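Entry type: protein chain
Record version: 2
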Amino acid sequence: MRVVAVALGLILLLAGDACAGRIIVGMVRAVYDGDTVLLATREQSRLKVRLYGIDAPETAKPDQPAQPFGAVAKRTLMYKIMGRQVSAEIVDTDQYNRAVAVIRYAGRDINREMVAEGMAWAYRQFLQGPYASEYLSSEESARARHKGLWRDPNPLPPWEFRQALKGGRRHGARH
């Protein structure tokens, strides 16, 4: 049984690598939060996509509270792309088997826009290549102008929020 699980894991890993670098066009059918969407595509029918290089505040889930600006980030992303045909430049596959991609609509980098509007952090842990300087400078600009989540003088990054929840400590809204 373990051999089958290892083989399946290897197949999924290789399939994920095969998708990297591909551009998939699809219609946005759902926005789960400020950095995750569902695309309806011709070739795969449904594809869950995590926006590359950004991390938006967490939205409320049945077992977890929301972060400040989580719902606003989700609504902002919905306004930008819900029901629209977008292209997804697949960069990677994450631990949850989601495609990780740069989403473009009408020639605009939606990931960068979310950071520039203060709706997400540039996700330094996973950010590299040509997008790194662009996303980091967009975050610095949003921070300097106190846009979106940067209205809070010391917002808690989502990766720290998630880590605190795993550690058993619950954080509600911080102001």
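Comment: Confidence is low (pLDDT under 50) at residues 1-17, 170-175.
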